[in-house]
Amino acid sequence: MEKNKYRGTAAAGSAASAEAPVKKKSLVREYAESIIIAVILALVIRAFVVQAFKIPSGSMEDTLLIGDHLLVNKFIYGPEIPFTDVRPFKIRDPRQGDVIVFEYPEDPSKDFIKRIIGVPGDVVQGIDKKVFVNGKLYRNPHEIHKESDIIPKEQNPRDTFGPIRVPADSYFVMGDNRDRSYDSRFWGFVKKEKIKGLAFIKYWSWDGDNWRVRWGRIGRLID
Fold first, then answer.
1. Considering the domain boundaries, does residue 179 fall inside one?
2. Which of 16, 114, 143, 182 could cysteine-pair with 173, CB 3.0–4.6 Å?
3. Of 42, 66, 58, 91, whose CA–CA distance to 198 is shortest?
4. Which residues span the domain enclosing 59?
5. Is the separation of the CB atoms in 53 and 113 below 8 Å?
6. 18 within some domain
7. In 3-state terms, the chain is what percent helix, strand and coil (to 5)?
8. DSSP 3-state assignment of 33?
9. Active site residues
10. What is the CA radius of gyration of the chain?
11. 8-state DSSP, 177
């Protein structure tokens, strides 16, 4: 009986070794899975961590030029959970001097980029091209003026406006190219939930007029 027992075991082992080997994934399937994973990771990074933007207009000259490509930190203000206003893992709130990308209030399908001048509770006023925040002159070393004339407040608010108090969860923004920027002076405040992130570095710059790369701007931090 012992002999029969061992014969049965050996027979079972032979049968197991005779089984077909595990089928390997096809090359096409491996490539497809790799691509799908890469796409998912890219979407997650774009939604919650960092996103690329291109500058289409001159409203932020000379800080940002037409053709500058930049990265926006979406994590610093807290990544927004899709279809909600929840922003977990926030590092800090937006503050004066930040260059932000946000949904244009008059057309949410467009993204604008401006500098924060006033935060919630601040009183912002413009007098003959000079900007005052809470009664003090706001000195922005990056601002430029390309028009010498002063437009009266009654005509439009480009040079003289306010005083205006910034409401809760809102921000007053302006372009560094002050005379050629369409910003909070004209259409009001940016809601906090509409801010996409903080612009922090230029990773590419293309001069379309002269068909050349602006090498000196690549890798420059945005301040």
1. yes
2. 114
3. 91
4. 52-217
5. yes
6. no
7. 25, 30, 50
8. helix
9. 59, 114
10. 29
11. B
d(CA 76, CA 150): 38
User: Is it the case that residue 47 has pLDDT exceeding 70?
Assistant: no
Rounded-to-integer distance, Cα 152 and Cα 35, Å:
58
Q: Which two tokens stand for residue 87?
A: 């922003």
Q: For position 89, what pLDDT does the model report?
A: 76
pLDDT at 184: 98
Q: How far is CA 59 from the centre of its chain?
A: 17
In a domain, 44, yes or no: no
DSSP assigned state of 193: G
Nearest to 174 by CA among 93, 90, 116: 116
C-alpha dihedral, 95 to 99 to 101 to 104, nearest 10° = 80
Closest among 221, 185, 189 to 203, alpha carbons compared: 221
Instruction: Name the percent of the chain lying above pLDDT 90.
Output: 67
- Tell me the pLDDT tens digit for each residue of 85-114: 666 778 899 999 999 999 999 999 999 999
| Residue (of 107, 102, 222, 221) closest to 171 by Cα position | 102
Give me the CATH number covering residue 72.
Answer: 2.10.109.10
In a 13 Å sphere around the CA of 149, the CA atoms on its Cβ side amount to 6
pLDDT top residue among 90 and 191? 191
Total tally of structural domains belonging to the chain: 1
Question: pLDDT digits over 114-145, tens only?
Answer: 999 999 999 999 999 999 999 999 999 999 99
Prediction pTM value: 0.79
In a domain? residue 28? no
